[in-house]
Amino acid sequence: MTKAELGSLLSKKIKGIKTSPIRDILKLTENKDVISLNGGYPAPESFPVKTIEELTQIVVNGDPNVFQYQKTEGYQPLLDILPSFLSRKNRQVISTPENIAITAGSQQALDMIGRMLIDPGDKIAVESPTYLGALQAFNPNHPQYIEIAADNDGVIPASLEQAFIDHPEIKFFYTIPTFQNPTGKTIPLQRRKEIADILKKYGKLAIEDDPYSETRFEGEDLPSLQSIAPDNVIHLFTFSKTFAPGFRIGGLVAPKEYIEAFNKLKQGMVLFTGGFDQALVAEYIRGGYLDKHIQEILDIYRPRRDAMAQAITEYFPNIFEFTVAQGGLFIWVSLKKEFQRLTGLLNMKELLDKAIKAGVSFVPGSPFFANSKGDEIAMRLNFSNQSEENIVDGVRMIGELLNTELSRLQTLGVFNY
């Protein structure tokens, strides 16, 4: 069979899927010659290797059924212990084993939610900007995106309510309230209550993605949206950032009707999630390893965040602003309002190409906007997966490229500041 003949067999859905920005990011992250400030990789030195060895012995010497086919819903000991984990101060999620489903990380949950809830042409509301992995999960189902405006405190409730008024057919609202990816912003408590009230008022569903709330460096824990409006929120969780992403254990909490539909879909896709990895996570929680390890993670990430923030202040031109997040893995850099006239003049894709040649990478802002025009001047920088020295060097190199480009624009007479 020729390549063309093989290609003709592909479904229209597969042909319509564009190259994933996530795949491109992961390729760059694996390049050892480049200081990668792009992917959301946890630090390898944060992986609890000795604990994993200990837990492995406990699991291997315990229940032999972990190596057997599992229930689609999940490994029962994990389902039984998750409500106590989810009820902690950083989530306060209301759950029972019956309204939890286990997935291969929260990314699989996003993919399955898209398949379960989105028909072609359906409208869904998303933050602007939002997590590009969610867009990649939803895009094959061909939704229409309604972008919700945000400020320094995250999504603006009035903007969300107006979207529900203007587009009453919106299926759901996707949000990351705590240490949002890509901006690092956190929605404060009063605003969470307002959003919950809006969901209840208009009978709408929110998909609350929460991969980062355990990684808080400072500030007070905040309750999840699900804790305020449990009938209107599907809450996603993952252990990729607090255990190890290679185990691919995450899940969701939802009203039972959604859980039943979700598990029917999962049966036809993957049948079940691996029991051995689920058992490791269950013992990780039950044995009290989690709290100690989270503190170890924070001790690694906090100084890296601080080093990145200081380096941006020192090396980036002052046309940019950024948020120093209280937790999470990212810093978002964007143009100040008074310099928006640069849009169309400063090409972030070309800047990335030059940065890679110089030995550093980042993620341009455009892929994080659901209805991107391709000319957004912003970037997401990751601080979790590099040493403080590499972070400073990488930010310095990007800053030098930005200053060089601005000098070129000034020389051409098209920009002055």
CA-based gyration radius: 22 Å
CATH topology of the largest domain: Aspartate Aminotransferase, domain 2
* Regions with little confidence, pLDDT below 50 for 5+ residues: none
CATH architecture term of the largest domain: 3-Layer(aba) Sandwich
Task: Specify the overall morphology.
Answer: globular
Q: What is the strand tally? A: 15
Average pLDDT taken over every residue: 91
Series of H and E elements: HHHEHHEHEHEEEHEHEHEEHHHEEHEEEH
The spatial strand order of the largest sheet comes to: 2-10-9-8-7-3-4
**How many H/I helical runs?**
15
Coarse structural class: alpha/beta
CATH homologous superfamily grouping of the largest domain: Type I PLP-dependent aspartate aminotransferase-like (Major domain)
What is the helix content?
Answer: 40-55%
Structural account:
The chain has 417 residues and is α/β, with parallel strands linked by helices. It folds into 2 domains: 3-47 and 296-411, Aspartate Aminotransferase, domain 1; 49-290, 3-Layer(aba) Sandwich (Aspartate Aminotransferase, domain 2). Helix content is 43%, strand content 14%. The protein is built from 15 helices and 15 strands. It starts with a helix and ends in a 6-residue tail after the last helix. 45% of the residues are buried. The mean pLDDT is 91.
